[in-house]
Amino acid sequence: MKNKNTVRIAITKGRIEKYAVDIFQESGIDCQELINKGRKLIFHDSVNNIDFVLVKAIDVLTYVDHGVVDIGIVGKDVLLEQNKNYYEVLDLKMGKCKFAIAALPDTNLNEGYNRKKIATKYPNVARNYFRGKGQDVEIIKIEGSVELAPILGLSDAILDIVETGNTLKENGLVILEEVCDISARVVVNIASMKLKREEILNIISMLQNSVTVKENLIAG
Hints:
Largest sheet: 6 strands, mixed
CATH topology of the largest domain: D-Maltodextrin-Binding Protein, domain 2
Distance between the termini: 43 Å
Strand content: 25-35%
Number of helices: 9
Order of helices and strands: EHHEEHEHEEEHEHEHEEHH
Strand order of the largest sheet: 2-3-1-4-11-5
Number of strands: 11
C-alpha cells in the first residue's frame, strides 16, 4: 500500500528495464515482482517502500514532470528531445550508444548553397545540434526507419541513435559526425526532491554505489 513516504519510480520498458532491474538488484532493492511481472504495470518493494512503474520511454518525463512518480529512469536521448522540468542526478553508465549524423558515402553537408535536409525521429536534438553549428537545415520528422530517407532522396542525411553501426552499414550509410554519447539516466521530480529528500537520496546513493562497483570491475 502506497503511503506518503513511498518512492515511485518510472522505468523505461525494454532494454533499459533489463539494465535497471540488474542494477536495482545489485543495490539490494527487491525486484522480484518486476522480474515476474506478467501483465502488471506497477510493482512494489515493501522492504524499501518503493513502487516501480513500467512505461514507454517517451512517457517517463511526463510522469516525472507531473509528479505522479518521484524518479524516472530513461535514456539521455529522451532528455535531450523533450523539454520538461526535472533534476538529472545520475548517469547509470548503461545502455550506451550515441547520436550521430549519417548519410551516403559521397555526402558533404558543408558543400553547396542549398539548404540541407535532415531526417530524424529527434527533431529537437537535430535542430539544436545544427543551430549550435550555425548551420540552417530543414528538419524532416520520421517515425519509422530513418535510414530510408537518404537512400530514397528524401533527405541529405539523418540524425539517429547508433549502437553498433551495423544497420547503417547494411544500408550503405556512413557516419559523418558524432553528436553526443547517450546512456540511461536517473531523473527526479523537483518537488519530490524536497518532500522525500532523504528517501530519494538513499536510493540514489545505493544506485551510485552499484555503478561505481561496476566501473571498478570493468577497469580491472
